[in-house]
Amino acid sequence: MIHSKTYYCVEVLFDGRPLQIEGPVPAERLETYAFHPGLVAFRPPEEQKKALLEIADLPEGRINIIRDAQTVVGYVTFVYPDPMERWAEGKMENLLELGAIEVAPDYRGAQLGKNLLRMSMLDDAMEDYIIITTEYYWHWDLKGSGLDVWEYRKVMEKMMNAGGLEWYATDDPEICSHPANCLMARIGKRISAESLQKFDQLRFQNRFMY
Questions:
Q1: What is the pTM of this model?
Q2: What is the DSSP code string of 78-115?
Q3: Can you give the residue ranges of every domain in the chain?
Q4: Which of 50, 83, 129, 134 has a C-alpha 20 to 30 A away from that of 17?
Q5: Which residues form the N-acetyltransferase domain (predicted)?
Q6: Using CA atoms, how far apart are residues 195 and 177, in angstroms rounded to an integer?
Q7: What is the spatial distance between Cα 47 and Cα 53, in angstroms, rounded to a whole number?
Q8: Least confident stretch, 67-81, 112-126, 131-145, 149-163
């Protein structure tokens, strides 16, 4: 499968100054940007930058960012699922995982996450993919946000909805381990019935629940 990537850039105002929402950003350009010190949801900023540079270099990898001048203040990643996860078992070339999305705390509350996901779906090539995200409550910033599990889940769902992702049922044990966890997906317009069937088989592996 040829992974086509068309660059887009959208300018938005935040506190009266322009921010750039852009991508997919190639590794060589991402390398030149600083990472905001508040981007610590997954690992320290410099370590996360290294991880994103590796994804940006992958044929299917997409890194879309929110940039304040020369500083990355938010990002979203699209990449093939981890080989250890069930979502990789089907070896589907047209299934990508929205692996991480993060906005620095100083920039939250302005719908930047929603705008980042909307921009991510502007590329017509995204209609050739099934995009999934697995949401686990233990990854959520409940302390920093002041929200409870269900309030945070609602915020996450609304943000993902902005990118066209919707809730999908699954019997995946990790997702089923807590009712707030969920699988969400966006089915591209050019996805075949065969690919949809493969996706359904990945979602439900217990034949009694299928």
A1: 0.93
A2: EEPPPTTSGGGTT--TTEEEEEEEEE-GGGTTSSHHHH
A3: 8-203
A4: 50
A5: 14-161
A6: 27
A7: 10
A8: 131-145
d(CA 29, CA 5): 15
Q: Is 2 exposed, middle or buried (0-12, 13-18, 19+ CB in 10 A)?
A: exposed
Higher pLDDT, 108 or 30: 30
Q: Is the peptide bond before 24 cis (omega within 30 degrees of 0)?
A: yes
- Separation between Cα atoms, residue 17 and residue 15, nearest integer Å: 6
Q: Alpha helices of the chain — where are they, by DSSP H? A: 27-30, 45-56, 112-120, 142-145, 149-162, 173-176, 193-203
167-185 confidence digits (pLDDT tens):
999 999 999 999 999 999 9
For 84-109, give one letter per residue: b (16+ CB within 10 A) or e.
Answer: eebbeeeebebbbbbbbbbbbbebbe
User: Is the pLDDT reported for residue 97 higher than 80?
Assistant: yes
The residue written with tokens 């990945």 in the block is 202
The dihedral through the CA atoms of 142, 146, 149, 152 has a sign that is negative
Instruction: Report the run of H or E that residue 72 belongs to, with start and end.
Output: strand 71-79
